[in-house]
Amino acid sequence: MDLAKPEIFHPPVKRSITIAGHQTSISLEPLFWDLLKAASDQHGLPLNALVARIDVERIAATQPPGLATAIRLWLTNDLLGKTVQAD
Known about the structure:
This protein has 3 helices and 2 strands.
């Protein structure tokens, strides 16, 4: 996705996903859906498995953010080449 295009300002899109056997809905901007798909491919994980992994890391945080926020933060951290660190 070209960051210079106005599509980066598209509002969030809600999608259903299964995490640990439970359906949930996540609202993310299309840019983040694209980045999440790319990250799942890069890490060799199905999208649901990557989101489940992010969810486990999120829940372990001292002050867990919402899942959509955790995904955005995880993606940013991943793009910067950093690993998740315990608080």
